[in-house]
Amino acid sequence: MGIQLKQNGLAGFLEPEDLAGMAPLVEACAGQLARGDGLGADALGWIELPRRYDKAEFERIQAAAKKIQADSEVLVVIGIGGSYLGARAALEFVHSPLYNSRAGKSTPDIYFVGNNLSSTYINEVIELIGERDFSVNVISKSGTTTEPAIAFRVFKKLLEQKYGKPGAARRIYATTDREKGALKSLADAEGYETFVVPDDIGGRYSVLTAVGLLPMAASGIDLGAVMRGADDARAACAESDFSKNQCRQYAALRHCLFNRGKVIEILVNYEPRLTQFGEWYKQLFAESEGKNKKGIFPTSANFSTDLHSIGQFIQDGSRNLFETVLWCPKAERPLVIEADEANIDGLNFLAGRSMQFVNSKAYAGTLLAHMDGGVPNIVLELDDIDAYHFGYTVYFFEMACALSGYLFGLNPFNQPGVESYKTNMFTLLHKPGYEQGAAQLEQRLSQ
Ligand SMILES: O=P(O)(O)OC[C@H]1O[C@](O)(CO)[C@@H](O)[C@@H]1O
C-alpha cells in the first residue's frame, strides 16, 4: 500500500553516493519541519492534520454533503489555486475525468468556477445547470480573491432568484478563514454554513481540510479512506531511517538532479485520472519553491497522449529536464484486445492482451528511450488509484515539497511573487487604494 520509489531510471545520471551525500541535509530539513523551527513555521498545520483533524467539523462536512446530494443535482465549487485544484484532482483521481457524464450516477454534477476571468466559461456553466437544482460551495482562505469573488456574485444572485434569499442561504456553503475576510463577514451576515481553512495551513496545503473534503464528500468519495491514506503517508514520511523513507529520498533525488542542471521536473502519468493531480502538483511546487531566483520548474505531462506532442522535445530538446513518473501497474477497469479475422490493422499480435499490458510497455519503452535521450526518470509506483492513495499521494508530495523548499533555503509556505500581477491588475482597474501609477502602466502598454 502506498508509494514505491524506483530508481532504475536514474542509472547513468546519479551515483549511490549522490543520494547518500544528500541524506544529512534532508534529515536536517526534516528535523526543522518536525520541531517547527524552520522558515514559515506558522504554516505547518498540515503535518499532523491526518491524525489531528477537527472531527466535529469532519462530521459537519459529511452532513452537508448528504444534504447537497439530497437537494441538488449540481454543486458549483467556486475557488482558485489551492482553493480548487485539490478537490478537482480528487474528483478525477478517485472517480474519473468523466465523472459528470457517468450514467446512473446518484451524486451531483460538480462544476468548478471562479478559477479564471472568462465570462464565456461562466455563461456556459450557467447554461449547463439549466433548470436543475443546485448548491454552491464558495472557497477562499483570504475571502478576498478577485476571481472567486466575481463568480460568487453571479451564482449567489442566481440562487437568490431561484430560491429566494433564505432558500439561497441554505444552499451556500462557505469555506474560509475562521474569523476574518470579506467572505467570512458575508457568510455571517447572510447565515451561510461555514467551514474553516485553519490559520496554520496555506491554500496549496489545504486539500485535506474542508477546502477539498466538502466537494469530495458531495461526490461520494470515502473521506475516511482519504484520511487513512494521508495518515499512513504521515507515518511513512516520518520514518527516521533515510534508507526506508521514500519521501525524503525523492526530495533528495530531485535536488541532486537540480544540482546536475536538471531544472525542470515533469510529473508524468499514464492514466487520465491523474491529469488534474498534475495541475495540483504544479501549484504546490511552483508557489513553494519558485522564489529568490531559485527552484525546480514543475510541469506535467499525460502519456501516452503527450508523447505525440511534447514527446519530441523531451526526447531530443534542451537537456535540462527530468521526469517523475506516477505509474500504477493496475487498471481498475481492464479491457482485453480481441482478435480480428481480417487483421487489416495488423494488431492481432496483441490479441488476448490487456490494454494495460500495452500501456505498461509504453511506460517501459518510454522510460528507456528518455533515459537514452539524457532525461533521468524517478518512478513513483502507486498500488492503486483510489481514495486511500489520493490521501497518501497528496501527503507524500506535500512533505517532499516542504523538504525541497528547505533544501533550497527558502520559505516554502509563502508566495510573495503572486502579488505583482494583482497589484498591476488592480491599478489598471482603478481599484480604490491602487490609483497611483495607473497612468504609468497605461503608458507602458500603449508603447
Ligand atoms: O483561497 P484564496 O485566499 O482565495 O487564495 C487562492 C489562491 O490564491 C493564491 O493566494 C495566489 O494568489 C494562492 O496561494 C491560493 O491558493
From TrEMBL:
Its EC number is 5.3.1.9. Pathway: Carbohydrate biosynthesis; gluconeogenesis; Carbohydrate degradation; glycolysis; D-glyceraldehyde 3-phosphate and glycerone phosphate from D-glucose: step 2/4. It catalyses: alpha-D-glucose 6-phosphate = beta-D-fructose 6-phosphate. It holds the Pfam family PGI. SUPFAM superfamilies: SIS domain. Its main location: cytoplasm. One of its GO terms (cellular component) is cytosol. Catalyzes the reversible isomerization of glucose-6-phosphate to fructose-6-phosphate. This is Glucose-6-phosphate isomerase.
